[in-house]
């Protein structure tokens, strides 16, 4: 039925099957949209956030998806700036995942703020000293860049490509894509960093606060670094999942392995930096404010030293070791484990830097407070996941996302 | 369809150009801007109107403390209540309840028109009626009862006995032919009986806290709302500045105890014993004012009784306090230049045992501190109400000669003027027709504030005709047949004798209307006059005034002018108070219940953030209640962790538990606190309302439902301070 | 965001931050404008860059 | 006249915890003055707007050596270093500002779009979010104060040191031809209401104001001084454990650093 739209030389499932898939995921999407409307119409009392948890699940989701979406900028950076040409076989997908992550982040932000209709004040009345201003500017600009990077892909659809204007536009955009990618990388370095700065600058919150250089706390650099390390891992992970679902090999192993190797070294260096940062913070920064590091990990029902071990050792050192060793990269289960751990690790880091910062009591007579999101918060957080799945489904079906697909899956 | 390059180009440029054009036009920017402006002026977010600012001085009558207030108005709206500077009671300060008074004035619990009951008694279903209908119905009912010779079956409960409105009610009853005027008893009444017995005077107690230099408090909530709140707070601050020592004797660490220099946790109920233990030491060591006491009547008997029974070793078990502590307390107390011993538990809203009051007062007497700077004063009634004796007709005389329903003034209870606590049992124990055929209630909420409220409500349900003058839909108003709503306190003109201010001189206040009445209400004074007029003849003749305002002006006479200007007048009057010691005729009041079956003692405690009298808590007050007292609708009781671990309970912070007393049980949650004696459970007073609005109703439980009355053997007042209790697990 | 909004101060932070922002925006804007104009021109067969395509992807 | 023209002021508070009775009058005075809304259930203190909140501190000892103390916590109007208060610098929309003229941290309600970053930044929990539409029972909106705007849902609010009272006092002074106001002309609602006289308010830099001397009391301390927030609310307590409770200390620091 829709065969005219499907790229030439590839096989896709039947329309019926595809519609069932859309229907199931669409139902989840609608649930999320319903929750989103509740939050907009009735206000944020629909959430379990409170005056102690001004930042909660959504801000974590924002930080996490932006870190995971970091595959787009870093792969782009490697492909267009460093010149790792093999990566052209995965860049499309990295861009698509990035596009989904960033549009999701913007949507979540629009739900998260108390007065969405005034959201534009962040630009109009910008306070340049606020990390959040930097986030908002760079995020929106980079989202623009991702749109620009995604647009040619859409225009390469079999039918659209027939329109000469679209064909030329797509071609021209490819021509100067390095310029956009460079701008995107520049923007990304800053907004990934400023997201790290969000909690790093909070000198009233000793758990989040870090010293740094000029106006940038160490978390600024750690966030950029970790996004560069774990974003590509997430791209690999999603690629692997897509291959599993479509029961097709879509990207050649050497491409994946190259990306995994670079990620591995990034992750290894990041983990070392993170350990150093944690050590300095635990032995110098926190004590100067009257805190012994275990104060942050005791007297509460959830946050214990285990989370530090999980984030740094299990989800940092371990995947880094797997990825930097050739045998690790070549072993499919090990590779899969490593990218999963890396994605979890960066998510745990973002969780800690948002939720645990809020949970730790600062006034000596205050107490730990735990938080569990309301269903509306969970639904609105799952909403972008459903949206992402649908967009991937549509893009994979109708757009030539994987340049190696035809070669790897010859149609009889 | 074939799209030619030209067509495509033109369509394309049209779309792109159109989009760009729109984006560059002011339209989207204007819309975005308008939307954000709209969010700043949501029609459902109120925008208070500006206007001319003015201040009206008045006197707060939410409690009998008699503080001066200054109310800020914007046009005809009252917007803020502040303390009146220069007022002898509070000098600019104001308490938490007084501050939130506008929530009562403009609040949803106001009764807006006269109401007539349509549902079952206590159900709270009413219909609106006119003032004419309402007054006519009440007058007819009263007329019928009077003509049937049942005038003595009409009773009246008033929040206080002082002031023109209570006196008008009393006068109405007198000329109508009923002796049954009752007021809600407080510690003032227990003190009044004490002063009568120990000095032979009719007087209110005054406490010269500003000049005392050692304060020994037997459970009085000095900063919990005892006496006149603001005055006591100021005194407490002055003590801090002057390093004056306060010793608080109390089984739970109240705010007062936390602020005090020394907290002595004594077994609850043993305060009177402890006071006499201190008296023992003073007598033994000759640390008392011999020139005052030795010549006082009954002193030798008193000395003998105390010496025989109150040696520290004898009372150590009862009080839980060591001999040395008692010894040093006695030395410190007697050694101070102006020591002051006070009692009246918590806010003093309940009378307490006569034994205890007299024991504590004896300490002041031994210290020679009566009617002296820094001591206790006998403050005479200001006596400004001097109306002509009314002429009683035959019915009235007959009615007045019948015995009082509550037994006050009888041989059994010679000292009490009224005994409201005896009213419910009198009604419930009567055979045949209810001994109270009609009841008038003004400024009182006995269905909430009396002990064992279940019984009280049962009794109220039996009274055939209840008339309430309440401004608010409280628990008692729900039991009314007719409600004749009074103006709220900021809407009416009324004298406010500050009998609870505890100053050494009587102070009269004048409460002035700050705003015009918001609803179709009537001043109770005017309603009483109207009722009297409707009853006719001699009853009407006793009320010659055209209106309540005219009555008040005439009553105050030469004081009217200055009162009207300043809102207060200090009456320069004092009274001779010869000292006489009492024979040991009073007994301590024990907690009801079997010790084995009920291992704990349950004790209500007062908090300044919980109004627990006739006035219900305002939303602002409830908002300040900590989450260790109330969470959602669950009340928390305080218990020492040592007591929480016992049995099979092993309670944790916030555990739900069944609290059972001989009077009833209720599901509560526990707050583990090191600030309370093991074995004692403390429950906040002031929660558990069933009436009022969603900001108060249904929150927690009323401690009075779990506690039964304990009649004092000396005065007949309800002197209950606690009850035995047990905790059992509850299935959730 | 703009010098005419009252929060704007001519200080280093604003110049650096807003400078960076407008720089990035300009590149993106100019780049897209170039692509669009060139695509229109290519479609109309005028040809700006000189070389012809088909050698790509 | 030796006073400079419109000399910069630094308004602050000194709260005597020995006098504070924990009665909560300051909280209610604040709510009444500043049109703070209330809900039917305010027992969840994590979403209950109380610009001034009275905390109860306990010494952690067991009966009968237990002790407690109340501590009223308004906004600290942190100066940080040179006005770099924790919340002001993080607000992305310049909706909160540190005034170098008065030392007051303001909140512009119509500017705030509710991102709550300032709340995350404030270690004192002095900032509150309007999770709900403010609703008054019918008729009760009559008592609302026209000098303070009612806040709409979805924005952050906090103690302003009753800034509107400063404006009114300044207006009155200008009207009477004066450049400066007297200490008593500008007092916050909580200070005015405190029945114990525990709160003293004034210009910390003005030697004629009571706070200027009071803050030098050897028993004076501020909350969380070690964070560098440089707050303008001082507390006085004669009890050592209370002063200790004002900041975080490492175990090995013992109890000697502050006494």
Describe the structure.
The complex is a heterotetramer of chains A (412), B (732), C (57) and D (259). Among the domains of chain B are: 5-40; 209-374, Dimethylsulfoxide Reductase, domain 2; 600-729, Barwin-like endoglucanases. Chain B is 33% helix and 17% strand. Chain B starts with a helix and ends with a strand. In chain B, α8 (229-242) links the parallel β9 and β10 (245-249). Chain C has a domain at 11-43. Chain C is built from one helix and no strands. Chain C is rod-shaped and about 50 Å long. Helices cover 16% and strands 16% of the residues of chain D. Chain D has one domain (11-253): Alpha-Beta Plaits, CATH 3.30.70. Chain D is globular, with a radius of gyration of 19 Å. Chains A and C meet through α6, α7 and α8 of A and α1 of C.
Outline of this structure?
The complex is a heterotetramer of chains A (412), B (732), C (57) and D (259). Chain A has 412 residues and is mostly helical. Chain A has 15 helices and two strands.
List the helices and strands and how they pair.
The complex is a heterotetramer of chains A (412), B (732), C (57) and D (259).
Chain A: H1 15-42, H2 57-68, H3 70-82, H4 88-112, H5 121-124, H6 131-155, H7 164-175, H8 177-200, E1 212-213, E2 216-217, H9 218-246, H10 253-288, H11 305-324, H12 326-330, H13 332-359, H14 375-398, H15 405-408
Antiparallel strand pairs in A: 1-2
Helix pairs in contact in A: 1-14, 2-4, 2-13, 3-4, 3-8, 3-9, 4-6, 4-9, 4-14, 6-7, 6-8, 8-9, 9-10, 9-13, 10-11, 11-13
Chain B: H1 5-24, H2 26-40, E1 53-59, E2 68-74, E3 77-83, H3 96-99, H4 102-105, E4 115-117, E5 126-128, H5 131-147, E6 154-158, H6 164-176, E7 181-183, H7 187-199, E8 203-207, E9 214-217, H8 229-242, E10 245-249, H9 255-259, E11 262-264, H10 271-284, H11 290-293, H12 299-309, H13 312-319, H14 323-335, E12 339-342, H15 354-366, E13 376-380, H16 394-401, H17 423-429, E14 438-442, H18 446-449, H19 453-462, E15 465-468, E16 482-483, E17 494-497, E18 507-511, H20 524-535, H21 537-541, H22 548-556, H23 560-566, E19 568-570, E20 600-605, H24 619-624, E21 630-631, E22 634-639, H25 641-644, E23 656-661, E24 664-672, E25 680-684, E26 723-729
Parallel strand pairs in B: 6-7, 6-14, 9-10, 9-12, 10-11, 14-15, 15-16, 20-25, 22-24
Antiparallel strand pairs in B: 1-2, 2-3, 4-5, 4-16, 8-13, 17-18, 18-19, 20-26, 21-22, 22-25, 23-24, 23-26
Helix pairs in contact in B: 5-20, 6-20, 7-15, 10-13, 10-14, 10-15, 17-19
Chain C: H1 12-44
